[in-house]
Amino acid sequence: MLVDLVFAPEVEQDIDEAFAWYEERRPGLGEESLSCVDACIQSLCRNPEMHGVVHAAYRRGLVRRFPYSVFYEHAGNTVTVYCVFHCSRDPEKWRQRLS
After folding, report:
1. Is the entire prediction scored with pTM above 0.85?
2. In the β-sheet with 78-86, what is the strand arrangement from edge to edge?
3. Tens digit of pLDDT for each residue in 66-87?
4. Which range of residues forms the domain containing residue 55?
5. What is the mean pLDDT of residues 29-37?
6. Domain CATH number, residue 83
7. What distance lies between CA 84 and its chain's CA centroid?
């Protein structure tokens, strides 16, 4: 399925923070985390309804190898990514972002 992909402005900061954290731990690990986030996003674009709804109309895809969730919405022919959050963060933080 071909969809239009849209990112909320905060997503870039989410990804940049994760990249920096992993890159500090081991050079190259930040790149690996980016690749895994990208693979998750590409997967949900191919099949946007593969993940269940977790809050209102928002869905959550899990990133392989790294403890991150990609929160997105599928409406019509568009997938909108709203946040990429670490799984151990307080769920209220992503709920606030999605509200």
Report:
1. yes
2. 4-7, 78-86, 68-75, 58-62, 53-55
3. 999 999 999 999 999 999 999 9
4. 4-98
5. 98
6. 3.30.2310.20
7. 4
